[in-house]
Amino acid sequence: MSYSSKLIEQAVEALATLPGIGRKTALRLALHLVKQPPEHTEAFAQALLQMRREIRECSVCHNISDTEVCSICADGRRDRSIICVVEGIRDVMAIEETGQYRGLYHVLGGLISPIEGVGPADLQIETLVQRVGQGEVKEVLLALSPTIEGDTTQHYIARQLADKGVRLTTIARGVSFGGELEYADELTLGRSIVGRLPLQTRFGEGGD
Fold it and tell me: Residue 118 has what DSSP assignment?
């Protein structure tokens, strides 16, 4: 594609690096920004810069946060006896959208996948064990995507928490096997949370 402006070309190259944005879409976005008042584009750019510079990871649950402790962990109205374990940040957002869960979260930052070279040490599993070990948690809900990697991670965590005296549950199979949790519709995901099952019904007695 030929550009009459090197600046437009640079903007297109930058926008096209975003997920799901091809060069044609990137060009439309760049031209749209050119047509906006300068203050609009400057505010847009400033918002992105501020987000990148100031966003941080919650020191408790590893969710994204503007402060040391995220708003969910800091909310005294949340049920602190239950922790919902998820793969990533978008899963937290998906579950919150259902309005069916009022406990706390723990973001692993991925799933165990030997093929991709991701092992337990690469995830936030040890910090989960430490949180549970503090004694306040009574239930750990493993809300991981129903995939091979999700089940492998679930099974590993169950073993790590086997002697902690907590109830281990998993989301009901309203979410189809092989699907990603973040793409489940709100109604299905909400019902899966409400209808969660004891983990041993999936893996046998004691999670083994």
Answer: B
> Which domains occur in the chain, in start order?
6-54 (1.10.8.420), 68-207 (3.40.1360.10)
CA pair distance 36, 39, nearest whole angstrom:
8
pLDDT tens for each residue of 56-73: 999 999 999 999 999 999
Closest CA to 174 of 187, 157, 159: 187
Reduced to 3 states (helix: H, G, I; strand: E, B; else coil), residue 176 is coil
Residue 117 zone, left/alpha/beta (φ > 0; ψ -120 to 50; rest):
left
Listed residue (198, 180, 61) closest to 140, CA to CA: 198
Residue 125 pLDDT: 97
Span 190-207, pLDDT tens digits: 555 655 656 654 444 444
- If we measure between CA atoms, which residue out of 38, 96, 44, 45 comes closest to residue 71? 96
